[in-house]
Automatic annotation (TrEMBL):
Family of this protein: Belongs to the short-chain dehydrogenases/reductases (SDR) family.
InterPro entries per UniProt: NAD(P)-bd_dom_sf, Sc_DH/Rdtase_CS, SDR_fam
Domain of life: Bacteria
Name of this chain's protein: NAD(P)-dependent dehydrogenase, short-chain alcohol dehydrogenase family
């Protein structure tokens, strides 16, 4: 499906791992980038078993300019990039520690910038097109009823604005830039802060139109479409994969 490497940040777990394995199952060469090298290595090994034509694991802290540059020195100019690494910290805004806020923004927003910059720089220099997908969130568009989501929402709102701007800048180079917007997906991040998964599933059944949490492989299918040539006329767009949640009014009248 791809002649070039598919690079995924946050590939050691969750949606990133699902995308890596989905690309591998289509015979792509893959690069698993993660701050946890052991998790990246395990994902790369699994990718080879799944059918990848090649796989490399690279330790990468997306909030570090030097780390991201070093990672792309290893993998070169990938034809497809999923800028996905992210974290979530929740707290009431008036109690939010400044260092925690800065960390969320550093990983979720600055990390996307650094990842895309290194990939785009190499693609432009190589004189060929490509596809970049960034992970946004419903939090970029609507508030979360649970609250305490200000840092995460701000970072993902920045990602969505970034995608629109970058798409315009790089369309002349044949490089597409889009975002996926996953809703509540059954990953470790959903349980941040020790959240009760049983209660989360009950809430999902009651509040999400499709009546359940999403699966990482379902989001991966959306990402793979955006990364592939099947979406060749799509850029600057957001593909919402949330079970219908954002389409639903909070009012029942």
């Amino acid at each position: 499906m791809w002649a070039e490497t598919v690079a995924v940040t946050g590939a050691g777990s969750g949606i990133g791992r699902a995308v890596l394995l989905a690309a591998a199952a289509r015979g792509a060469r893959v690069a698993a980038l993660d701050v946890d090298l052991s998790a990246a290595s395990a994902a790369a090994d699994e990718a080879l078993t799944a059918g990848a034509s090649g796989a490399v694991a690279v330790e990468c802290d997306v909030s570090s300019e030097a780390s991201v540059a070093a990672a792309f020195d290893v993998i070169g100019a990938p034809g497809a990039v999923f800028a996905n690494a992210g974290i979530e910290v929740n707290a009431p805004l008036h109690e939010f520690p400044a260092d925690a806020w800065e960390r969320v923004v550093a990983v979720n927003l600055v990390g996307v910038f650094l990842t895309c910059r290194e990939a785009l720089r190499r693609l432009v220099e190589a004189g060929r097109g490509g596809s970049v997908v960034c992970t946004s969130s419903p939090a970029a568009f609507v508030g979360h009823a649970g609250g305490g989501n200000s840092a995460y929402a701000a970072s993902k709102g920045g990602v969505s604005a970034f995608v629109r701007s970058a798409a315009l800048d790089y369309a002349p180079h044949g490089i597409r830039v889009n975002a996926v917007v996953p809703g509540a997906t059954d990953t470790a991040m959903l349980r941040v802060g020790g959240a009760d998964l049983g209660r989360i599933r009950e809430a999902a059944a009651a509040q999400i139109p499709l009546g359940r949490l999403g699966r990482p492989d379902e989001v991966a299918a959306a990402v793979l479409w955006l990364l592939s040539g099947e979406s060749s006329y799509v850029t600057g767009s957001h593909l919402v994969c949330d079970g219908g949640l954002m389409a639903k009014s909070a009012n029942d009248f």
